Fold this sequence. Notes:
By secondary structure, the protein is an alpha/beta fold. It has 2 domains: about 10-310, Alpha-Beta Barrel (Anaerobic Ribonucleotide-triphosphate Reductase Large Chain), CATH 3.20.70.20; about 320-365 and about 400-530, no CATH class. Helix content is about 45%, strand content about 10%. It is built from 26 helices and 16 strands. Helix 10 links the parallel strand 6 and strand 7 (about 275-280). Helix 2 (about 85-110) runs antiparallel to helix 3 (about 115-130), helix 7 crosses helix 9 (about 230-240) and helix 14 runs parallel beside helix 20 (about 460-480). The chain is globular and about 80 Å long. The chain starts with 11 loop residues before the first strand and ends with a helix.
Amino acid sequence: MILERKIPEDFKENGVEKGYDEEFGLICKNIRIQIPNRRFVYFIDSDYVMDTSKGTAYENLTPAYDKILHAGLRQMKYPADEVTNSFCQSYNLVLENLTILADRIIKELEQCDYDTKRQREWFERLKDAPAENFEEAVQRMLFVNQVFWQTDHRLVGLGAWDFHLEDYYRKDILEGRLNQKGVLEILKEVYRILHEHYEYKSSLILGDTGQIFVLGRSDQEGNYIYNDLTYLFIEAMREVQQTEPKCLLRVNRHTPRKLLEIALESIATGIGAPLLANDDVVIPELINFGIDKQDACEYTTSACWEPLIGGKSSGNNNMTVLNYLKALDNLLKRERLDRIDSFEKLKYIYYIYLKRNIRAVKRVLDSRWFQYDPLLSVFMNDCYENKKDVSWGGARYHHIGITSVAMGNLVNSLLNIKEYVFDRKLYTLYDVKKCVLQDFEGNETLWKELKAKASRYGTDDKEVTVLVNEITSCVADELEDYRSCLGGKMKIGLSGAAYMDAARGFGASFDGRKAGDAFTVHISNEDNNGFTEIVNFASQMEYSAARFNGNVIDFMVSPDFIHSNWDKYVDFLMLSIKKGFFEMQMNVVSSKTLIEARRKPEQFPNLIVRVWGFSAYFKDLPEDYKDVLIERALNNES
């Protein structure tokens, strides 16, 4: 069960909520500090968090962790003569209160009955000086991370630590203070520390924390850029074998085979990470959307897979969900179906309903406003220069994102309607309506026939790819003129976390899906285990014009298959990158293991599976999620 977060009563006075400055000050001055006997200081007082109920809270984003590396807290403040508005005052107060928190940590360290000299020096320097070495830099970034979780920022991304820490790593290696083996041990400790509070950090499901390292990158000329830490972060994750934090590896056609092999070694253990993001496809779409080329080359992600510019983007990427089936459902319920005499006319009317749904999404988002957030502004580039809070438009980019579900169910339903109603004329649209409204009751023969049909979504079929691109083009056209109150645009992707939640209260669909059953997971097709075919399908998708907010190929694959075809599977990954997929993730587990783990959970306490865009312990999942994973594994293996 996910922990309930309690709001301290002293955040209110005479029934009136205090301002942000007082609230944040109370956090820094009153939270319980715990100092375990280990290399780094990291703690969260889960009983004392900020009240984030006064508007839309900032989440699903990545702060600029590197800002704390190059200056001390006091050095980051506005000089007295530059404090020209209330935001500047709040900005400085955040840094003053963080300094108070650092002093409190130092006092606690002084009380320890073991040697804490090094940690005390780190926190003394944190107040007034840049970081000097690798371990100190890591401690600062952990400090920033814990403060964000302490203030109830949810789904906090980690970003490009392999590049933020590179200079400190090289200096310490060169001067003999560290070696690669020592750095690997440090990173393993970082993974363990960030995993400790995963119950508190989890959002909707245990493990859904948003903690994701983004490793590797491409430069403006398309060269692939990586370093020793890129390898070491993946190796640390593989050795620690836990659900959190997760990892995304950016790749392009020039990614070294050795790095892909190390990534696959990690994936093949069953932890489901790293997820792969293809710079050859992602970066051009970011640039086309209006992102500066250099910024585009430095993109990270938010919670799972949605690209954003870490430390420069303040817009949430998961504002709401578009259900592609809803428009077809409304059409069947509301239209005079006898007037729809062709598949083309059906599609035309479907697009009318789809646009109505998108307009409803716009209205919902227009009613939302973001909370004042000086802490995030301190760790967001451009807010200092603009003297604006992120909620006032201080960051460089303000674009927001939505996700989507049920594209596979929609496409298969439409193509079944085309076949059964318009081509073969076996049924009418009223028959289709009756089937889905009655959950196929009385039409079990047809349901079994539809259920047995292989999914066409996710196949290398021109009719399918044309239809999907046509549907997403309709959405992109409808989003083109949207601007938020801060001027941000809206983006959407073909991946969404709500393929279970949005489906629970949704009726049947003409792809053979019964009412309440899960929607198709991301870009997937367990009816066809020819992995090359789904890569070909995904590579033919159009991701331009706002359609790049996460498009993940999601495989189920058995461990035996990977290990028995190791070299060919690495070849497959390299060719898939060149082919042009957007993103890819894998669940490496057998149906036998999943079935046994559900039957005897005590024997599989650490079995890890991939859910949405994160890894979770199988035992922690709701039963319907377990059902979906088992069904997908069985279908894939068959």
